[in-house]
């Protein structure tokens, strides 16, 4: 017998992105890298983001971790809630920056792109590519 909706406890999302907009610098081929992105990731879920080159996948991850190229690429809209707390703080120029994850939320980010091996032997091809969050 499956539980009824009233007996299932509400689960707080682990990550809740609402209306994320990331502006590109003046003169770019388009005004936004990401515009109005919304998604929810619940505990014990896996989210796979798929898209064409230049569609904003990496920019989204970099915005969440505070790794956008400064000062040219900026979060200009939306919010990113981690365990119910907005990790962006808004600054006077209408943009938002993430607070420091480890200090405020117990989450760390890492850039896991291949790095050159010791003594110039070339990149370590055994690593995955791209940033990730762990909590």
Percent in strands: 25-35%
CATH-derived topology of the domain at 11-104: Rossmann fold
Please give the number of β-strands: 8
Q: Please report the first level of CATH classification, the CATH class of the domain at 11-104.
A: Alpha Beta
Give the low-confidence spans. 102-108, 124-132
**Main sheet characteristics:** 4 strands, antiparallel
Rg calc? 18 Å
**What is the name of the CATH architecture of the domain at 11-104?**
3-Layer(aba) Sandwich
N-to-C SSE series?
EEHEEEEHEE
| Spatial strand arrangement across the major sheet | 2-1-3-4
Fourth CATH level, the homologous superfamily of the domain at 11-104: P-loop containing nucleotide triphosphate hydrolases
Q: What is the residue-mean pLDDT, rounded to a whole number? A: 75
Sum up the overall morphology in one term. globular
What share of the residues lie within helices? 10-25%
Structural class of the helices, strands and pairings? mainly beta
Span of the ends, CA to CA: 33 Å
Overview features:
10% helix, four-stranded antiparallel beta sheet, mainly beta, Rossmann fold
Architecture overview:
The protein is mainly β and 135 residues long. The chain has a domain at 11-104: Rossmann fold (3-Layer(aba) Sandwich). The protein contains two helices and eight strands, in the order E-E-H-E-E-E-E-H-E-E. It has a four-stranded antiparallel beta sheet, covered by helices on one side. It has a two-stranded antiparallel ribbon with strand order 5-6. The two termini are 33 Å apart.
